[in-house]
Amino acid sequence: MQVTLVEAGPRLLPALPEDLSTAVLDELKDMGADVKLNTMITEAQPNTLITKVGEEIKADLIVWAAGVRTSKVTHNFDGLEINRTNQLVVKDTLQTTVDESIFAIGDCAAFTQDDGTLVPPRAQAAHQMAKACAKNIFAIFDNKPLKTFKYNDKGTLVSLSSFTALGSLTNKFGKNPLTVHGKFAQFAYVSLYRMHQHALHGCTKIGLIILVDKINRYLKPRLKLH
């Protein structure tokens, strides 16, 4: 099987650090993937993609990944400030800019950082926002001043299916990130995923989820043919 990855921009994973993008690119090439950067697709036909310069890319299976965009349901909230990706624009307290009685967190919130960039739509950001939002809601009930939110990037882990993983982990001071790859990165990725599941479901249910996952991995075939 030959995999061709087409990216319109100059590098993969543009929201992540450039050195990590380069590492992912090198890893994909080592795995045999044909990566085409700076290649914009203007038309899709059955089993064929047409680039901006007229090149035809043949494929038996085409998967289109168009990035992150918030649901248009936010347009139903009359009067609130919304950006071009349907996110609710919030202040540094995570309150919406128009109505301070409404908070927005996670992927649906557009929070501008000190450097002018938006907080990325990632699980760790949503987790940190949720904690800050809860504290500010309690502060309102207790007639206390609200605290400003500051995103702390604890690093990035990228899973390349079951083949490998890589990423960078940041210490609590945000300096000297540690680059990880291979089995250790895969273990860190799975551990982080299980931590998110634990936060949502609790100890008992996450234990059952892990057990079911292991049983399914043993019973289900790796390749399903029809």
Topology:
Blueprint: E1 4-6, H1 18-30, E2 34-36, E3 41-45, E4 48-51, E5 56-58, E6 88-89, E7 109-110, H2 123-141, E8 155-160, E9 164-169, E10 178-181, H3 183-219
Walk me through what this model shows.
There is one protein chain. The protein has 226 residues and is of the alpha/beta class. It has 3 helices and 10 strands. The chain has 3 domains: 3-58, FAD/NAD(P)-binding domain (3-Layer(bba) Sandwich); 72-142, FAD/NAD(P)-binding domain; 155-219, no CATH class. Helices cover 31% and strands 17% of the residues. It has a 3-stranded antiparallel sheet with strand order 3-4-5, with no helix packed on it. Belongs to the NADH dehydrogenase family. One of its GO terms (biological process) is aerobic electron transport chain.
What are the defining features of this structure?
226 residues; FAD/NAD(P)-binding domain; three-stranded antiparallel β-sheet; globular
Task: Summarize this entry quickly.
The protein has helices spanning 18-30, 123-141, 183-219; strands at residues 4-6, 34-36, 41-45, 48-51, 56-58, 88-89, 109-110, 155-160, 164-169, 178-181.
